[in-house]
Amino acid sequence: VIPLEEAQRFVLGLCGPLPAAELALDDALGCVVAVPVEATEQIPSFANSSMDGYAVRADDTKAAPVELEVIGSIMAGRPLDRTVGVGQAARIMTGAPLPDGADAVCMIEETDSARDGRSVVIRRALRSGDFVRAPGRDVAVGDAIAPAATALTAAHLGVLADQGATGVVVHRRPRIGVLSTGDELFEGEGPLPRGMIRDANRHTLMALVRRDGWECTDLGIIGDDESALVELFGRAGAACDAIVTSGGVSVGDLDLVKSVLEKLCAWNMRWMQVAIRPAKPLAFGVLADSGTPVFGLPGNPVSAMVSFELFVRPALRLMGGHRFLHRPVLSATTEVDLHREPDGKLHLLRARLTIDGTGNLRVGTTAGQESHQLQSMSGANALILLPDGDGADEGERVDVLVIDADQLSSAESVALTTSHRSEPS
Ligand code: AMP
Ligand code: MG
């Protein structure tokens, strides 16, 4: 039995970032920049108004209130070919280019326009630059807008688009093949034959792959059949950047995934007993023919998901070029007693993490903590990390691995959602 960190180190040590490729901007969300991008254009590229109002010469407004002659109107995208002279103003909309001569904008709320629109009273004295967005104030030429190792967000894509970029060079998104193994897996319609079960793991694992934006290939179900597994690993190894299997890695008679990987992976394969519960067994190796890593996850549905979180996801992030591989661990107050027996293992409990009214994190377990009870995982947004020992009492602080931050709601945000819903449509 080996510690979790050792198993993670072994796996990550045999994975590395995928080569770079140019992707269209709109396909690159979440990908990691391989070639840094610097700004070649300043943003804004021209001085423009940050308000709907009047473009003026600040000097003219010193003795406000003052009445100025209105010489025209400027809409966004439609510059004015006239110069604002002394005693003059131009009506201007947000984002419209500041006309020559003007150096400030008075917001419409601080003006009174004459009924014929030919003049305007500016009620407030302005300083040069007021309500003007100066060129380059957001982005200057040479700014690092997407440094190497940046994981691209929606905002990054907007900043790149602002520069006229249509593509960006990123680490290729890993393509992951997912299969289930086991003679007991039944596919198709009709009642379940005696002793058979339906395949849950392939669907949860494919969903976990897709959730992070990676490409997924459904490799189907393979029975407990050595030659079928060999054939599939050969075929999928050539087409995928990584393969994820479930089942066949414990100590049963037909646990063939581990023995097949032992044969196909040569020296760089390990069948590990990790000091965690659930998800103790893990077979991991790199196929000798294709260089493709294979993750042999345990068959129990909760174990398969936990193992994915602990081993597969960090490795796929490494392949995608990410710097931060692991999910965040936070400290939270447990709402329930978490007593356990010392057994040399780190326990990972399916849990619900919430933010209370004062912003503190609280955590409770979801029902059914056996490794086949997948239902308990549906309600979980976190895993409590309970180290070897006697556990924790209600009210104590425990470490929590956040697996679904989107489901981390506070009392307030729940109230917000409710009030939105009750608004008449
Ligand atoms: P194994 O690791 O092959 O011994 O499987 C451990 C347990 O997980 C057994 O009860 C299997 O029936 C179950 N199991 C294996 N694969 C799946 C799957 N794809 N979906 C649901 N349960 C599975
Ligand atoms: Mg099996």
Q: Overview of this structure, please?
A:
The two termini are 59 Å apart. Helices cover 21% and strands 30% of the residues. By secondary structure, the chain is α/β, with parallel strands linked by helices. Helix 1 (4-13) crosses helix 6 and helix 3 runs parallel beside helix 6 (301-319). The model is unreliable at 413-425 (pLDDT under 50). Magnesium ion binds next to loops.
What are the defining features of this structure?
425 residues; alpha/beta; 6-stranded mixed beta sheet; 8 helices; 28 strands; 30% strand; disordered C terminus; binds adenosine monophosphate; binds magnesium ion
Poorly predicted regions: 413-425
Please identify the structural class as seen in this structure: alpha/beta
Query: Strand order within the widest sheet?
Result: 7-4-6-5-9-8
Task: Please summarize the sheet with the most strands.
Answer: 6 strands, mixed
Oligomer: single chain
User: What do the pLDDT scores average to?
Assistant: 94
Strand content: 25-35%
Helix content: 10-25%
Give the gist of this structure.
The protein is built from eight helices and 28 strands. It is of the alpha/beta class. The chain has a six-stranded mixed β-sheet with strand order 7-4-6-5-9-8, with no helix packed on it. It has a six-stranded mixed β-sheet with strand order 16-13-17-21-20-18, with helices on both faces. A five-stranded mixed β-barrel has the order 22-25-24-26-28.
